[in-house]
Amino acid sequence: EVRLVESGGGLVKPGGSRRLTCAASGFTLSTYSINWVRQAPGKGLEWVSLISSTSRYIYYADSVKGRFTISRDNAKNSVYLEMNSLRAEDTAVYYCARDNPIAAPADYWGQGTLVTVSS
Amino acid sequence: AIQMTQSPSSLSASVGDRVTITCRASQGIRNDLNWYQQKPGKAPKLLIYAASNLQSGVPSRFSGSGSGTDFTLTISSLQPEDFATYYCLQDNNYPRTFGGGTKVELK
Q1: How far is B73 from chain A (nearest CA, A)?
Q2: Cβ neighbours for B2, distance < 8 A, ≥ 6 positions apart
Q3: pLDDT in tens, A57-86
Q4: Which of B36, B49, B100 comes nearest A103 by C-beta?
Q5: Confidence bin at B102 (pLDDT 50/70/90)
Q6: Which end of chain A has fewer CB atoms at under 10 Å, N or C?
């Protein structure tokens, strides 16, 4: 069974940092690109970042560029999102989602982890 | 970044109704358009990829069409489990962008 499990969420002060982890199981992570997508409370979905299977290609939304860093460790079946200089507007549920290399982006999603940025 | 304009933002419908949701891209994106369903407190679920391809396990009452800038998600006969919020996502280029969402509510 394909599973993605996010962890690392919690309460962070403005200007602080947080590292999220997406742990994969049930498939060979090293052959898939992984996205991070977030959803602020009561709002729509916002695509945040993607890392390709070998880390060769990395992309960010303009809203997080220069503050967030995506990385992966295929040996540990994990993808990470390092978030720095956090702002109140970064408060959201953060989901990781797998790209199917055949055609479908974000075909499997984790359950999400909530990051709250507040003093 | 490509802007995705989804309409309507909400709609009220009854079980058995035919429902249509549209998504318009600010520039041509070929058929690189995908549709997701999200229920409260849950992760999104992929319904349609590459504009018109039904994801495995998704009921055939869901269909997608379009190319270029204009796309449509149709639910042929709305079922009770279809009341949810629907989003489009373009994966033509980066940054990927979602539409604003369409909430389908019970009339």
Answers
A1: 16
A2: B25, B26, B27, B29, B90, B92, B93, B97
A3: 999 999 999 999 999 999 999 999 999 999
A4: B49
A5: very high
A6: N
